[in-house]
Amino acid sequence: MRHAKSDWSADYAIDHDRPLNERGVRSARAIGKVLSEDHKVPDLVVTSSAVRARTTAQLAAEAGEWGSEIVIDSRLYGSGADAAVQVAAESGSVEALMLVGHQPTWSVLVSMLSGERVEMKTATVAVLQFDLSDWSNLPGATGTVEKVYHPRDHLE
After folding, report:
1. For 125-140, what is the mean pLDDT?
2. Which residue among 48, 92, 125, 141 is buried most deeply as judged by most CB within 10 Å?
3. Selection from 82, 94, 154 nearest residue 123 by Cα
4. Of all residues in the chain, what percent carry a pLDDT higher than 70?
């Protein structure tokens, strides 16, 4: 999941602290609900340490009533797709894992893991399916894009 729309006009000292705007809050909540309705609730959420990513993960989990553990990992902020794969590889044997992060890394990550191009606009979720016994087998694996959720399709 890419973080939801952030507020460029907000008062923040550094990029890491940029919050979500109102549209971002609505989008994160909408995606959380639709993932629950479609039985795509993650067992574990690992999010970038950036405020906008953490808030996106928290709002989606609350709105979807997930009950998922949310872990903050600073390696998902300002790093590339290889770092995201490493974070995922350390996630153990959970069945459904969600990473929450940033562009352009997320588009590159989806392409690297599936060979498909997905437009990862704000609050977009790309669901990838892998045949893995454990996330430690992710490096070098290829999955398929099962579904893509765009928030604009689910806002009320």
Report:
1. 96
2. 48
3. 154
4. 99
What's the pLDDT tens digit per position in 70-124?
999 999 999 999 999 999 999 988 999 999 999 999 999 999 999 999 999 999 9
- Cβ density class 51-75: b for 16+ within 10 Å, e for less: bbbbbbbbbbbebbebebebebbee
Rounded Cα distance between 49 and 76, Å, is 7
pLDDT(156) > 80: no
Place of tokens 């959420």: 45
Q: How far apart are CA 95 and CA 89, in angstroms?
A: 12
Give tens-digit pLDDT for 40-71.
999 999 999 999 999 999 999 999 999 999 99
Coil/strand/helix, residue 151: helix
- Residue ranges per structural domain of the chain: 15-153
> CB–CB of 6/124 below 8 Å?
no
Cα gap 53→70, rounded to integer Å: 11
Residue 34 CA to residue 119 CA, distance in Å, equals 19
Predicted pLDDT of residue 155: 78
H or E segment and range at residue 58: helix 51-64
CATH class held by domain 15-153 = alpha beta
